[in-house]
Amino acid sequence: MFVPKLYIKYAFPLDSTMRQSFAEKDLGYYPAYKEVKDKIDELLELWAALNTDDRVMKLLINLTKVTLPRDLELGIYGGGLLPMSIPLIMPITRGNKHIANDKLLVTIIHEIAHRFVGDRDVNLGINSYWEDVSKQYP
Q1: Phi-psi region for residue 75, left (φ > 0), alpha (ψ -120 to 50) or beta?
Q2: Eight-class DSSP state of 96
Q3: Which of 11, 12, 89, 138 is a plausible cystine mate for 77, CB 3.0–4.6 Å?
Q4: Cβ partners under 8 Å of residue 14, min gap 6
Q5: 68 contacts: CB under 8 Å, gap ≥ 6
Q6: Mean pLDDT of 28-56
């Protein structure tokens, strides 16, 4: 069974574009490059501890009976947009406040779950997942 990995990356083009937009339009606080990079380093450690032995990904596979055909990359940026599953992106701020680490991790898992069962790709096992959902919620 293939167990996808999550690679947490700096979403440079998005982050720099959002930072510039915030500055040009005077939209308020936007975290500095170093804040974003420091948060990525912190998230890498937190994710490694949480997903030891691929625990999170295996749990998603076991719960949904679906697996992904490839690894995932999560783009981290300062803010200005909501988290998304396609593309898989996550801001570190909402408004002028940093998002707490536990909220970041829960939201990341939520967005990954969308990729398992809501992706436009035909993921292995997706048909049986929706059949099970239809039986449980007729």
Answers
A1: beta
A2: T
A3: 11
A4: 75, 77, 81, 89
A5: 2, 4, 115, 116, 119, 121, 123
A6: 98
The CA-to-CA distance between both ends of the chain, in Å, stands at 30
Both tokens assigned to 105: 């991790």
* pLDDT of 120 higher than 70: no
pTM for this entry:
0.91
Per DSSP, 87 falls in state T
Strand (E) or helix (H) holding 27 = none
Closest-CA residue to 117 (of 137, 136, 133): 133
Q: Is the peptide bond before 87 cis (omega within 30 degrees of 0)?
A: yes
**3-class secondary structure, 71:** coil
Is the peptide bond prior to 13 cis by the omega test (within 30 degrees of 0)? no
Between CA 68 and CA 87 the distance in angstroms is: 15
Residue type, 76: I
